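Researcher: Going back to the complex we discussed earlier. I've cleaned up the inputs and rechecked each line, so this should be the final set. Can you rerun the prediction on the complete assembly and write out the structure?
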Amino acid sequence: MGADIPAQPGILAGLVAITRRDLLLAWKRPGDVLNPLFFFAMVCTLFPLAIGPSPAELMFSGPGVLWVAALLASLLSLNSLFLSDHEDGSLDQWLTSPQPLPVLAIGKTLAHWLISGLPLVLISPLLAMTYRMPAGVILVLIFTLFLGTICLSLLGSIGAALTVGLHRGTALLSLLILPLAMPVLLLGANTVSLAAGNEAYATGIWALAAYAIAALSLAPYATAAALRISNE
Amino acid sequence: MRRRLATERKVLTAKLSAKDLTLIRGERCLFQQLEFALDAGELLLLQGRNGSGKTSLLRAIAGLLSLESGEVHWNDVPVLSQRQEFHGAMVWLAHRTGLKGDLTPAENLHFEATLRPQSKTEIAAIYERLGIARLKRLPLRSLSAGQQRRVALARMLMADVPLWLMDEPFTNLDSDGRKLVIELTEEHLASGGLCVLAAHQEVDINATVKRVKL
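Model: Rerun complete. Updated structure for the full complex:
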């Protein structure tokens, strides 16, 4: 034991460290990052081929298709959020560290969003062009997807934490998350549709932002509690 | 000056005790009415055959498992009512190391350092002591099981905490490694630390040893 009390690592340090670690891991295994992105791009490019080149139809179905594909792509990557940490014992180490678990959960979720949510947002304008979306609507799409993927990552972290102890919990995870994710999908897709129809759409964006803030303030605690239960 | 006194008091009063611990997993009662009291400088040896509940008891002490009855106390305060303080005073060497195979030992330990209070010892000295200095830039998955365990030991040495929980620390280690674990434990106990060690074999250590048979 030293003579001085050692500096206790700060809360922010834990958050930054866990985010940094997950980004580093993703960097070393790029396949995990690219999978949901490929899925998103594939679904979005196949749809116009299937429904035909009529601009009216493409513009009508575009927002819905892009949003459903984004939702499913987010779900696809959720299963692995806590799985490897549970299997190799990292989760035990976090649960027995003095760092508050909700903060570590935020760090994990932030990394997950940066790895699998943000790329969807960034690639969406390119895919939106295949649906003949005008620039103004694309901006609305980017904004709603930005807020929506944050919501989905946060909601997903609760589901992933609840199902981490179960083997093959994928189906259960989707069932748990979908009811909570429905409002996000409805708000997101409808807001973009309204913007495409030249109608007032601001309400949808405010509602999505409110949902994101509510999720950000509640989800980390729920995730932490769920992790404690499922790691017993 | 005030800070210095606070540390000394913390070390002097460090005490781990438990009463009436009962744990039931599924249909089986792993242990009941178990009790122990451990003071600074003492080692608690958990012994029993495979599957007798050594790891479960360690997990219960660490606060990872909820018990059927009984409480674990740290400095006479229930662990669950001061989870953060207790976890700031312990480090756990589990069977699963909790290290990432894709990262190098240095990257792994850099992350671990943000989780707990860190000792003043130079990290280079710890690498040297454990014989992993030349491995620190290799991906962890390319190391042998024994070398990975040495990296996990490095995490334990880096942490400046009084309580060590060790689950079968000798697994995968060669005879030098085993001797090293014993030496490190003796040093830790001599400096006023506490140790709970689960092992299925006899441990020959020069310290006050208390035993729990499971």
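Model: Worth noting: Strands of chain B lie at 15-25, 28-39, 42-47, 69-74, 77-78, 90-93, 163-167, 194-199, 208-213.
Researcher: Good, that matches what I expected from the previous run.
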